[in-house]
UniProtKB/TrEMBL annotation:
Residue ranges constituting the Alpha-glycerophosphate oxidase C-terminal domain according to the UniProt record: 426-495
Organism, as annotated: Microbispora triticiradicis
FAD dependent oxidoreductase domain segment(s): 23-357
Record family assignment: Belongs to the FAD-dependent glycerol-3-phosphate dehydrogenase family.
N-terminal signal peptide: none
Pfam family, one: DAO_C
Protein's recorded name: Glycerol-3-phosphate dehydrogenase/oxidase
Listed InterPro entries: DAO_C, DAO_C_sf, FAD-dep_OxRdtase, FAD/NAD-bd_sf, G3P_DH_FAD-dep
PROSITE patterns according to UniProt: FAD_G3PDH_2 (PS00978)
Cofactor(s) this protein cannot do without: FAD
Keywords from the named record: FAD, Flavoprotein, Glycerol metabolism, Oxidoreductase
Keyword Flavoprotein: yes
Taxonomic lineage of the native organism: Bacteria, Bacillati, Actinomycetota, Actinomycetes, Streptosporangiales
């Protein structure tokens, strides 16, 4: 079956889901819900999956994009979480998404804030992480080991570092997804290729063990989807549908810097947070040249918003921490944008795997996922992280459908994985993997689509997203299929092109 998602398919499948009983209804199409839809569909189950907004509308597009081996969990004694992360990182790098996930280097600059004892402790941690990599079967060729660099080498990789007092740097490697929202789209399309009906702009109003009341947000029409099992994968909104699920959302903010803001940066940075032992802010260079700087961890009070705001206090904090290692600290006017996401942390000492804590700082809450069955049979899967989405999805479907065949997703390549036609432009290969050839063919058939829209994005990317990636409006195109919208001026400049792309099809 075709993996393409578009308005015509949505309309057709929306009609179908009213008349059938599906094996599994998945609510929420972030990384977890898209993963659950794929897990169930690839076991041969019939699936409907809905999101109130768009693919990756929630937390999944606001991550740091690290596919990490769980080193920090090891440091806090959560060996099971660390192991699961290392295994899932290997699955993504080696089998399921080698076109979207790759190793990326990070430097920890050895400034006066990092004493020799702390540096030695961190290096021991990196070596343990490397041992975990090996035990999880990920080869060094895909994820190199750690090393110590001289100050001169560190400055060659990160010229904006303050040379004065720099004793060198610790170099480590971890996985990174080229774009978290694109990962979700790839998972959802792979689910669609296995027959899942993937329906955006469909809000679940009420859940039960045998289905949901749903509203088509484009027409306002309400209808029922009947299902043999229901999986609630609505992240920080999960408690709104299943009140027994208690969460303690925590806000994480990133800054967005323009390309070149930190010189010719060739590695990410772990920046020591003054006054905190072994806690670091992250400088994360992106494929489009922009740089993200993150990240905070603040408990959220009050209602959960659709799109969280990044407060000025977070921006000021991150600028100050970053300034601690830069030769020329950045000013507020050099911050091109900022975004915040809400971690769906489980507020239960038992439900989150035992390491959760009620009433403490959110930074200390367990990152382990929980699969919870409510009395009426709805299975909620929550917590965890992007890196472990596949395992979370497998656990959720195992619980929701105990008689189903075993999960196949550890060996199932996502849409775009596979051999790439030789001689294709690098930009397209990085974005589309094995589908790059098809995008190039589109540009050849319709040459006017080669028109640039923003750095690294052409009209062809937008038209492809409308025809194959389920983009239904300009917001889908600018804020999720591409990340142009992270900088307000770039978004405004690209808006006419996004609208033109929607009318071309
Ligand atoms: C700042 C930050 C940085 C992070 N960095 C990393 C990282 O580097 N690496 C990593 O592995 N993890 C990271 N994480 C964790 C990771 O991003 C999350 O654990 C993960 O994205 C959660 O995905 P989800 O699918 O469970 O939830 P979401 O992505 O929030 O998806 C929930 C979906 O449910 C939909 N929905 C809500 N209500 C309804 C309804 N009534 N009907 C239908 N649909 C509904 C929403 O529209 C949304 O699309 C980070 C998290 C944050 C906040």
């Amino acid at each position: 079956m075709e993996s393409s998602l578009n308005a015509a398919r949505r309309a057709r499948e929306l009609d179908e889901v009213r008349t059938v009983v599906v094996d599994v209804l998945v609510v929420g199409l972030g990384v977890t819900g898209a993963g659950a839809a794929l897990d169930a569909a690839s076991r041969g189950l019939s699936v409907a999956a809905v999101d109130a907004h768009d693919l990756a509308f929630g937390t999944s597009r606001w991550s740091s994009k690290l596919v990490h081996g769980g080193l920090r969990y090891l440091a806090s004694g959560q060996v099971g979480v660390a192991w699961e992360s290392a295994v899932e990182r290997g699955v993504l790098l080696r089998r399921t998404a080698p076109h979207l996930v790759a190793a990326h280097p990070y430097l920890l600059p050895l400034t006066s804030d990092v004493g020799p004892g702390e540096a030695a402790t961190v290096m021991t941690g990196y070596r343990l992480g490397d041992a975990l990599r090996a035990a999880a079967g990920t080869p060094r060729s895909l994820l190199p080991g750690p090393s110590r660099l001289t100050a001169a080498r560190a400055l060659a990789l990160a010229p904006s570092l303050r040379p004065h007092g720099l004793r060198g740097a610790l170099l480590s490697w971890d996985g990174r997804v080229v774009d978290d929202a694109r990962l979700v789209v790839a998972i959802a399309r792979t689910a669609a290729a296995h027959g899942a009906r993937v329906l955006t702009r469909c809000r679940a109003l009420a859940l039960a063990g045998d289905g949901a009341r749903v509203r088509d947000e484009l027409t306002g029409v309400e209808f029922d989807i009947r299902a043999r099992a229901v999986v609630n994968a609505t992240g920080v909104w999960a408690g709104g549908l299943v009140p027994s699920v208690a969460l303690r959302p925590s806000r994480g903010t990133h800054l967005v810097l323009r390309p070149g803001a930190l010189g010719a940066l060739r590695a990410g940075l772990h920046v020591p947070i003054p006054g905190e032992r072994a806690r670091f802010a992250l400088v994360l260079p992106q494929a489009d040249g922009r740089i993200y700087v993150g990240l905070t961890d603040e408990p959220l009070d009050g209602a959960v918003p659709d799109v969280p705001e990044a407060p000025e206090s977070d921006v000021a904090f991150l600028l100050e921490v970053l300034g601690g290692v830069l030769d020329r600290p950045l000013g507020r006017d050099q911050v091109a944008g900022a975004f915040a996401g809400l971690r769906p942390l489980v507020d239960s000492p038992g439900g989150a795997g035992g390491a959760g804590r009620v009433g403490g700082a959110t930074a200390d809450l367990s990152r382990r996922h929980a699969v919870l069955r409510s009395p009426d049979g709805v299975v909620t899967v929550v917590g965890g992280k992007l890196t472990t989405y596949r395992r979370m999805a497998e656990d959720a479907v195992d619980t929701a459908c105990p008689n189903a065949p075993a999960s196949r997703t550890a060996r199932l390549p996502l849409a775009g994985a596979g051999p790439v036609r030789p001689g294709l432009p690098r930009r397209l290969v990085l974005r589309y993997g094995a589908e790059a050839g098809a995008v190039l063919d589109l540009m050849r058939r319709e040459p006017e689509l080669a028109e640039p829209v923003a750095a690294g994005i052409t009209l062809a990317d937008l038209v492809w997203a409308v025809r194959h990636e389920g983009a239904l409006d300009a917001g889908d195109l600018l804020d999720r299929r591409t990340r142009i919208g992270l900088v307000a001026e770039d978004r405004a400049a690209a808006l006419p092109a996004a609208e033109a792309a929607l009318y071309r099809t």
